[in-house]
Amino acid sequence: MVAVALCTLLLALVVWTFRQAEALRLARLQAEQARAVAEEARVVAEVRASLLARSAQAAAKLGTANQTKVGSLWAGLSVNHPIFRAGQTKELRIEFTLVNDGDKVMDPKIPESRIVINGKELSDSRMILGSFQDGTRVKGLPPGESVQFDCLLGDRFEEPAIYRVSWKGAGFQSSDIVLRILPDEAR
C-alpha cells in the first residue's frame, strides 16, 4: 500500500511538472504572437503614415502646380460643369474660394480683385466681385478661415471656345480652371 501511495505521489508530481511545462510553453507562444502582432501593427502604422505624408504632399502640390503664392491667402476656382453648349450657358456658375493661411486677420480686398479670362482681365470684374457681401469677412478674414461665393457668368462665355479662367487680387492668385463651350448642336 505504501508502494501504491508512492507511485500515485510520483505520478501526480510528473503530471504537475508536465502541466507546468505546458503552461510555460503556451505563455511563451502567446508572448511571441503578441510581439508579432505588435510588430505588424507598427509596420502598418509606418506605411500608413508614409502614405498620408505622400498624399498630403501630392495634395499640396495639386493646388499649387500653376499657382503663385503671393501672400498668405490661397485662392481657388471651380465651375459647375466644364462643358456647355453655345446658347446654353445661362446656368454657368463659377465658385470663388479664398483661404487665409496666415496667422493674422486679412483684408482680401475682394472688390478690387480681378477675373482673368484667357489672359485678359474681365472689364466688369469690379462690378461682379464688388456685389459680393458676406458681413465682416469681406474686410476681415480670420486665420484658418475661408470664404466662398459664386457668380452666374454664362453671358461671358457665349462663343464656342476653350476658356482658361483665373482670379487674382492684391494678395492672391488662383490656378486656372478650364472650361469649354461647344458649338450649338446642329438641328
Through-space gap between termini: 115 Å
Number of helical regions? 2
Low-confidence stretches: 61-66
What is the radius of gyration?
A: 34 Å
CATH class of the largest domain: Mainly Beta
Shape: rod-shaped
Calculate the mean pLDDT score and round it: 83
Order of helices and strands: HEEEEEHEEEE
- The assigned structural class equals alpha+beta
- Fraction in helix: 25-40%
Main sheet characteristics: 6 strands, mixed
Strand content: 25-35%
Number of strand segments: 9
CATH architecture designation of the largest domain: Sandwich
Number of domains: 2
Question: Which characteristics define this entry?
Answer:
187 residues; alpha+beta; three-stranded antiparallel β-sheet; 2 helices
TL;DR?
The protein is an alpha+beta fold and about 190 residues long. The protein contains two helices and nine strands; from the N terminus they run αβββββαββββ.
List the helices and strands and how they pair.
Layout: H1 2-64, E1 73-79, E2 83-85, E3 93-100, E4 114-117, E5 120-121, H2 125-130, E6 146-152, E7 161-169, E8 172-173, E9 177-182
Parallel strand pairs: 2-9
Antiparallel strand pairs: 1-3, 3-6, 4-5, 4-7, 7-8, 7-9
